[in-house]
Amino acid sequence: MADPGDTVARVDAEALQREALSAIEAASTPAELDELRVRFLGRNSQLKLALREVRDRETGMALNAAREAIEQAVAKRQAELERAELSRASEEVVDVTLPGEKLPLGHLHPITQTRRQIEDAFLGLGYEIRDDREVETTEYNFDKLAFPEWHPARSHRATFFLDDRRLLRTETSPSQIYAMEEREPPIYMVSIGRCYRRDAIDATHYPIFHQFEGLAVDRGLTLADLKGTLLHVMRALYGPDRRVRFRTHYFPFTEPSIEPDVSCGICGGEGCRTCKQSGWLEMGGAGMVDPRVLENVGLDPEEWSGFAFGCGIERVAQLKYHFADIRALWDGELRVLRQF
Q1: d(Cα 135, Cα 195) in Å, to the nearest integer?
Q2: Are 335 and 132 in contact (CB under 8 A)?
């Protein structure tokens, strides 16, 4: 007579097999089928645990038969699900004339946009565009530009000095010296790049900024040529409706010197925090090249004359796009920059 324990083991194996085959047949997705495979054939499944405890031949044969049947059922159902998936994919119709998904694209920073507009304005006048090194010497940043020894820009409180002889350029004016040393006039050039000053950060100042500076050296140039050039550039950048005025000023490397101002676009000239209630925003500096600067590069001031001008690109962008605070251009806030 058979042992009662063997009969119970065989019945359990058969019951487990029937349960597994029924569940596998009902599986409708590969993920669901994989869960059933782990449930009935996994390392900690009831079947695998029973196989580890087998002590007689008949029980082992019954459990292994159940395992083989379940494995075959899993493989069969997996093949059926894969064929069904391929069939559905082949029945789908793709309209190739429909537009594809729109990918998110970046755009140029307002400073870069403004820089390119400035370049276009001067290229249209026949000027060349150049940029030179940002680490400069005191000779080219100050001495050859006729800065006196007492000038505040030479102070360590105003300029980022690396040592007694080298510094981070405070303006792109050294490029003008390079241009005059490299070739004989006539020269019409604009230097564009980053500059550094120890300015207190406020609505219109930042210690790192971009600047464009122009230089024209030729025979017979006058202050009227300078004003005409600046008016052309201002109108190209801001349109004909913005007002421009010129004020006398002092700069070490120009004589006479002037400062161009543009009416504040934030308040329409009525006065606000950005323009310090004046209705105007200073654009930079300009003037006729000082004869000492021409002599420093070996040019005869009796034969040649020239004019120079410089302006911060952030200031231009602030005026053009009506930024109330120049710091918004450096904060990297995408909600602001995406508007331009």
Answers
A1: 10
A2: no
CA–CA distance from 85 to each of 32, 77, 90, 95, 239 (Å)?
14, 12, 9, 20, 62
Write the Ramachandran bin of 279: left for phi over 0, alpha for psi from -120 to 50, otherwise beta. left
pTM: 0.65
Count of positions (residues) in the chain: 340
Residue 90 has a pLDDT of: 65
Which pLDDT band holds residue 92 (cuts at 50, 70, 90)? low
Phi, psi of 238 (to 5 degrees): -110, -10
- Between CA 207 and CA 251 the distance in angstroms is 20
CA–CA distances in Å: residue 162 to residues 85, 138, 206: 68, 11, 19
CA atoms within 13 A on the CB side of 36: 24
SS3 of 321, please? helix
Closest CA relative to residue 132, chosen from 184, 215, 206, 195: 195
SS3 252: coil
Q: Is the dihedral of CA 319, 325, 328, 330 positive or negative?
A: positive
Dist CA 121 CA 286 (whole Å): 17
Handedness of CA 183, 189, 191, 192 (dihedral sign): negative
Closest alpha carbon to 230 in 310, 133, 113, 298: 310
Q: Take residue 200 and report the two structure tokens written for it.
A: 């207190």
| Beta-carbon count within 10 A of 88 CB | 9
How much is the pLDDT for 91? 65
Please report, as a single letter, which amino acid is at residue 37: R
Q: Where are the alpha helices (DSSP H) in 53-195?
A: 57-91, 110-123, 138-141, 174-182
